[in-house]
Amino acid sequence: MAGEKEENETKSNFGSFLNDLRKSRGFTLRDVEKITDGSISNGYLSQLENGNIEKPSAAKLHHLANVYAVDYHVLMEHAGFVSEASAPMNRVATSVLGELTHEEEEQLLQYLSFIRSQKR
């Protein structure tokens, strides 16, 4: 039962992480669909963000990494495919601020999303 709870939290956290990433870039679901030439439909991305897709495809995560300008391994880690220990440490914020916890990284993304929303 504890393992099931952790898996649901990972899915929920991953969806929230993707949503924060998208919003921090100022993209709508349809924007992502257009940018990827339909490779990632707005429906698929919505399902990912809501935690309704258990195992996102590695190819889709690669597309999202390109769209969001984030390291592919970061998405793979958040999706539960790789452990933190095996993920590279070459994040932009890390190079400026030092190593960030997941919570700090998510808070930074949320704050960036807020700042960008104020510019509209």
TrEMBL record:
**SMART domains from the xrefs?**
HTH_XRE
One Pfam family name is HTH_19
Cite the HTH cro/C1-type domain residue spans from the record. Answer: 18-75
The UniProt entry, under CDD domains, shows: HTH_XRE (cd00093)
Q: Record's InterPro entries? A: Cro/C1-type_HTH, Lambda_DNA-bd_dom_sf
Descriptive protein name? Helix-turn-helix transcriptional regulator
